[in-house]
Specification:
Blueprint (H helix, E strand, L loop, with lengths): L1 E5 L2 E4 L4 E8 L7 E7 L6 E6 L6 E3 L7 E6 L4 E6 L8 E8 L13 E2 L3 E6 L1
Parallel strand pairs: 2-11
Antiparallel strand pairs: 1-3, 3-8, 4-5, 4-9, 5-6, 7-8, 9-10, 9-11
Length: 123
C-alpha cells in the first residue's frame, strides 16, 4: 500500500485543519488505518485509528473531543479532522495501515507508513 498524506500547514491556536491520506496499491478496505504524530525530540505517538469498516475508533486522550478520524473506502482515503488546535499539536503527522480486522492501539506493528505532513500551530 502506498500512502500519501496531505493537508498540513500553519494555523493559529483554536483553528482547524483536515488531513487526508490517499491509499493505492492494495485493497484499502482490508486495512485498519491510523494517524500518528511525532514532535521534535519526542517519540512517535498514536493520534487516532479506525477499523476497516469505520465501526470502531481509538483516540489519544490528548485529542479526544477535538479530533475526528473517518474513512471513505470508495475513495481509498482516511481523514483526520482537527479542531481547536493547540500549539502542543505541532508535529509531523503520519498515516499508516495495518492489515487487521481488529483495532489498532499502538504505534508498533503497522504494515505501511506514508510520508508525513507538517502541522504547525502558532500561539
Amino acid at each position: 500500500v502506498q500512502l500519501q498524506a496531505s493537508g498540513g500547514g500553519l494555523v493559529q491556536a483554536g483553528g482547524s485543519l483536515r488531513l487526508s491520506c490517499a491509499a493505492s496499491g492494495r485493497t484499502f478496505s482490508n486495512y485498519a488505518m491510523g494517524w500518528f504524530r511525532q514532535a521534535p525530540e519526542k517519540e512517535r505517538e498514536l493520534v487516532a485509528t479506525i477499523t476497516v469498516n469505520g465501526g470502531s475508533t481509538v483516540y489519544a486522550d490528548s485529542v479526544k473531543g477535538r479530533f475526528t478520524i473517518s474513512r471513505d473506502n470508495a475513495k481509498n482515503t482516511v481523514y483526520l479532522l482537527m479542531n481547536t488546535l493547540k500549539p502542543e499539536d505541532t508535529a509531523v503527522y503520519y498515516c499508516a495501515a495495518k492489515r487487521t480486522p481488529g483495532v489498532i492501539t499502538a504505534v508498533g506493528g503497522m504494515d505501511y507508513w506514508g510520508k508525513g505532513t507538517q502541522v504547525t500551530v502558532s500561539s
